Amino acid sequence: MATHATQIVPRFGELDPYNHVNHAVYVSYFEAARCLALESADLALPDLSDQDVQIVVTNLEVRFRAPATARDTLRVETELVERRRASTRWQQRIIRESDDAVLVEGQLTAAICDNNGRPRRPPPGLMDKFDALTPG
Question: Residue 37 belongs to a domain with what CATH number?
Answer without folding.
Answer: 3.10.129.10
